[in-house]
Structures are given as structure tokens and as C-alpha cells.
Amino acid sequence: MTDTPASPPLGATVVPVPYEPPSPCTEEAARNPAQWMYERLKQYIKDFERHLDDDHEIAARLVSFGQTLTFHIEDMGYFGPDLVTFFGKNEHGEPVQLVQHVSQLSVLLVALRKQEEVPRRIGFVLDRKDGRGVPPGGA
């Protein structure tokens, strides 16, 4: 018997995420796992956004709070050595912030209908930030 992956359901679109083996654990990554997680998430977000159409933007769906929570991701950051944060708005336009420990991080990236005329893309914004998730020159 061979181990073959199951076929996706009919009508499903399968978009492979490029796999890049993790870089060797550096002393800096060992001291600040939140920074390492932030950098990896940033790449996943950029890859996910690359496949979105003009009517959708990136969002996160969480199911570990006793109910399902979905929100549009507007920004992301970290507080080393162990916390990653997501900032965004829920379906009512109210601000939300998720603070998650790196050992418990589990976020489902999903596409939601855009909230504004132009869909928000955060991948390029994350690229302009320094290692603390703060825009260069920011506080």
C-alpha cells in the first residue's frame, strides 16, 4: 500500500505554498522565536495575497475561542521573545487585536470580500517594517 495524498474535493482550488526549508537555528532566532515566527508568517501572507483576486483581501479565521472569529488582517507585529500580534477589523468594522504566544499560534488565512473599493494588501507593508514590526523610523 502506498501513501498518496488524498485528492481535493471537486471544485476546490489548490494553490501550493512554496516550501522553503527552515534556515538553521541561529543564536538570534533562539533568543527571539517571535521574530522568526513573524518573518515566516510575513512570507505566508505575501504568498497568500499573490493568489487573491481584486474582490478579496486577506483575513484570519480563529476557532479556538469557543466560537468562530473572522477578521480582516490590517497589520501584524511581535513582542519578543514570544508574542505575535495581529491587528484588524471584524465584520462590523470594529478594531480587533489578537495576541498569541508562538507555541500556540494557529491562524487560518482566508479570503474575505474587500471592505473598501480597493482591496487591502499587507504583505508589502510588512516588508517595509523593521524587525519589531514597527515601520522604519516609527516609535
Q: Structural class of the secondary structure composition?
A: alpha+beta
Question: Strand percentage, roughly?
Answer: 25-35%
Terminal CA distance reads 58 Å
**Domains, number:** 1
Shape: globular
Biggest sheet strand line-up: 4-3-2-1-5
Number of strands: 5
> Major β-sheet, in short?
5 strands, antiparallel
Poorly predicted regions are 1-9, 133-139
Oligomer: single chain
Radius of gyration: 16 Å
**What do the pLDDT scores average to?**
77
Order of helices and strands: HHEEEEEH
As a percent range, the share of helical residues equals 10-25%
Secondary structure tally, helices:
3
Structure, described:
The chain has 139 residues and is α+β, with helices and mostly antiparallel strands. It has one domain. Helices cover 20% and strands 27% of the residues. The protein has three helices and five strands; from the N terminus they run H-H-E-E-E-E-E-H. It has a five-stranded antiparallel β-sheet with strand order 4-3-2-1-5, covered by helices on one side. Strand 1 and strand 2 form a beta hairpin. The longest helix is centred in the first third of the chain and has 18 residues. The N terminus and C terminus are likely disordered.
